[in-house]
Structures
1.
Amino acid sequence: MKYTLKEMPIEERPRERLVKYGAKALSNQELLAILLTTGTKGVSVVEVASRLLITLKGIQNFNEVTIKELTKITGIGTAKAIMLLAAIELGKRINSNQSKHQVISSPQDAYHYLQANMSTLSQEHLVCLYLNVKSEVIEQRTISIGTVNTAVFNPKDIFKWALKLSASFVIVSQNHPSGDPTSSSNDTLMTKKIVATGKAVDIEIVDHIIIGKGHYYSFLEHRQGKRLIADD
């Protein structure tokens, strides 16, 4: 049996539960229901939130959702879709601002810093972390967006921002939409090209991290702490 929101016991309604227990105690479905505010004829807002999660196959896929995809779901019109996208973007910006000045001292640190935004992307993105002399993050910047299996980039764009930001170190990262972070021959060639350009402008490439789903590949770890790319 399905209940409308008004028919639910007051103590079970998402807004009332948030006031009583705090936002952290609520499920993804309940948080979405609060953002959506209302359902549609015969369908409660909680049910709309549930359909949204099912359609997108989980909260992890919200990063790349579009207005067109959202408005296909019964109970979500353009106004609600815009509100959801605004909330998603605001969350990204809050997280980004909190992460600035974080120290990146290992490939695992870099992976944890990047994976939330990069592991769910449907196209290959080339993203750089620019670090100061203390290895603190100055800025994270998307350099280019490629296809489902190819990263398109110009090394000059990487170092243009390094110079503008007065960065001492750069961590290059890309995602593999397939979910498998294993490096390819093209990834190795790309890394060699970037490292060579970095030497020319005296900016060190600390690592090249490939982000998959739940896993990563680090060129630095693969070289066991030696030079990022062998001379051979």
2.
Amino acid sequence: MTLNMKERLAELVREFARRRVAVVGDAVADQFLYGEIGRVSREAPVLILRHERTETVPGGAANCANNLASLGARSSLVAVVGGDEAGRALVEKLGAAGVDCRGVIASGSRRTTTKVRVLAGHAHSLKQQVIRVDYEGEPLEDSAVKSELGARLRAAADGADAIIVSDYNYGVASGVVVETLREIARARDLPVLVDSRFRLTEFAGFTSATPNEDELEHTVGARLDEDAQLARAATDLLSRLEHRALLVTRGKHGMLLVEKDQRPTQIAAVGEREAVDVTGAGDTVIATYALALASGATFAEAARLANHAGGIVVMKRGTACVTPEELLASVEAGDER
């Protein structure tokens, strides 16, 4: 007897704890500075905030690895951080979450890419983001570090069921890393999933990718205002990339799954409420997508689970993760058949 969709998706989630997934890419320290609005400054027409607390959480590739661990999988990260407070805090948080950080290189000559979000509000009210300040690390140019990343990627891939590339264009996913990925994929037939902000066409020949609509438009160089245009562009890009599938995230419009030699599939967004915070949602989506594929899911099944995970995480404030229990509850409440 064939399992119905809800039972199948739940079965896949229960397999997550048996899987190991490696992430390679640009780790980011996401900092959230909370302050209570005190008064208007006499020096300029700006608000003065009384600092309450500052939290540092994993962002970028680190958030992806963190989500894998939160979903119950064995997760490892290959990345570079600076020898600074933000880098130390990042590795400490990841270690506490159960992420294997033996692939993380701490370089004293680099600054950890840090994104500081200032959230302000009155006492006893929800804090709203008022500004973001980015401290960007320099692009990675050190050939010795790039070579070492390749070696650590090989070690992290040993025993892995899938690999995720989380590329924010800070240099970790260099030519050395991409070639290492190709060697690993050829030798072990591993699924390699790609999330690249600006360089997706440089990752041809892997398994799948998860661009959002803006990234798809940037890649194809055209505005895509209609569903039919989006589907055609995604299908053309899939052919160019020589991937097996492309999962386009569309915010409140859900997702578009394009598979080789199949008609595009529109997947409606989970839930009816407006998103609270989309920070890091793409990391959650690709972590769930990759983990489902590593557990034996079809692309359609993996996309549906990723859609549920994305719908959960955007209802949380800040850079957040999803748990298996939350995912199972969302699947049970969904309308899959």
3.
Amino acid sequence: MNRIIALLLLLLFILPVTVLSQTITFSDYERDEGTDMNFEIIGKMNGNFLVYKNIRWKHKLCVYDNEMKIKESVNLDFFPEKTLNVDFVIYPDHFFMIYQFEKKNIVHCMGLKMDGYGKKIGEPIELDTTRIPFFDDNKIYSTIYSEDKKKIMVFKIQKKYENLHMVTLLFDDQLQLIKKTRQAIAFDERRDNYREFLLDNEGNFIFTKDRTPANRDYSNTLHLVTKAPLEDTFAYHAIDLGKKYIDDVKLKIDNLNKRYLINSFYYNKNRGSVEGLFSFSWDKINERQYISNFIEFDDSLRQEARKDGSLHIAFDDFFIRHLIVKKDGGFLLAAEDYSSQGRGNNSNPWNRWDYLSNPYSLSSSSYYYYNPYYGYYRPFSNFNNQSTRYFYENIYVVSIDKNGKREWNKIIHKTQYDDDNDNFLSYATVNSGDEIHFLFNADSKNQIISDQSITSDGTSKRNPTLRSQERGYQFMTKLSKQVGARLLLIPCVYRGYICFAKVEF
């Protein structure tokens, strides 16, 4: 009798853990899919999972079933040799593949409809062409789409003398052209930054422009730039910063409440330290400012966020990573402490300005290809004479209400670093509806994932860690993609090959 009672008590303790545990299913790998392979997780369609893979001149689509077994491996042999980039817009039973290639100094932008098994529906159609000078960058077309995916835009930007020449092509969800426009924009490459190109559900094209007093300064002027679907020109809306400065501008569309959200860390003086968060909202219906607020960070928050040094510089290495809109018009913002350190004879010290002038936004050093939808995989190679150590540390999470007021703050503590490769660092988010999960590698071998979640009222908790029953799988968590309400695909490295893990919460 005592043994039965003891067994029942044991089951009571075991069962809750079982309910909270996660299921991990790994895909197989192929011998040619090493760490020099480029890939993108497309998503889930018809119960299958689609992944695009590029190995040198070869392109293919792999279709995985629910057990992560390959059902189809489709060679995209119709791609020309100089295919430069591929973007995807996915729907429940089909997707569009938009790609660009160069032939005889002409860049062609093509569109193709495909089904959930990687089979062509019709033939590729030419969306646009551009003749480029011999030494110019040939990756010039970017693809964005609205949240409901009923509008798709392909745009290109080319610098000519002191202007940026922008061409926009707005399509419907059948890839039928709605409107094409051309416009020249004044551009001072030492002072102007154009960032965050997005498309709302009505087809409005929006982005931001900030301007610095001089090269390598913080910005002291900011504009929201909009273009209505059938208009030919851009409208510039000045945003008052007072006498404050900003640098890393992030734009988000709130389609439900018809607002555009802009957030940035701010400074009281040029080249100073981060003082707090600037939060701005634009009412697109009435075409006016809805909220504008400077939220100062107090010493207690700085104390919890800092890793070393004085309190005043606690947020100087933080960068905004995610912004999640709530139904009532508020939002959650997440920022991460990131830095790097050169370890060679010719290494330079960490510089925030250099990091912000990266090739994935239209800043003073780059004005070509832009993609806001996924993290970038860096193949495992280092051709430099110096080594770089990457540091990804604490995560700052703040809830802002619909009136721009701070509701609560949270600091998620973590310490991560690696040399010459940051694919295993940083974090991913999973929105399960009632809470946001923050996932990041919790051990030096990148085989255990920590799962910490935060609810809408700021309650945080530690969930059971994700770990494989099989050894040797290293998770590239920051490159994962949520493909269902409680479903995540995570790229992995196993014995030098890339595979994928399906995680069910």
4.
Amino acid sequence: MNTSLNGNVEGKRVGLIVPSTNTVMEPDLYRNLPKGTTVHTSRMLLEGSVTIEAEELMLDVYLPECARQIGTLMPDVVVFGCTSAGALRGPAYEQELAGEISKATGAPTITIMGAVVDELKRLGVKSVAVLTPYSEEINDTIKESLESSGFTVPYINGMDVKGAFNIAAVSPDEIIRYAEEQLKGVESDCLFVSCANLKSVDVLEELRVAAGRPVVTSNQAVLEGVKRTINIAD
């Protein structure tokens, strides 16, 4: 635990690095982490839609300064909160990225795809269907990342939402209907709903019913990873 200047015990500090368009991940963390845990955010500039070029700019230009800023608040754990950017260059690069963030911040770092892989392994699944709000080119990188981690991806489909900010406008009910429609006839051990700016955490149980199989989402996997990393419980 952190200790304040007057000697009182404080809650854990979570450093969060997200694209500037993300409006969902902070509320998800605050609503689902124990009282007293605080979330402190630094934002990587993202303009327009989620594209490979935009994500490369986030990784190479904006991320280093964000990590330096987060380091100054002495976090207990840091979350790199972008699923697609983490998957962009594969699992080996993402692990290296986590190491660089940890070096800059002095704290353990959780990446979304790393947390998702941990959840899939915990569930003991081998095949994963994937639903996203992304375009086909971004979906390809998600699929390749999962396959590089040892899973088969029999089906992946994206909503192709135009504008990264607009992903948060997709309602939970729309996500559930999308899952019901897309998974007809699809066989897999699990469903992964990708994107930290998608409102899927609050309807996780409904998604499991709609999918008829276990479901992992980006923010749900991160929440589990944060709790394990800094030894906090609900």
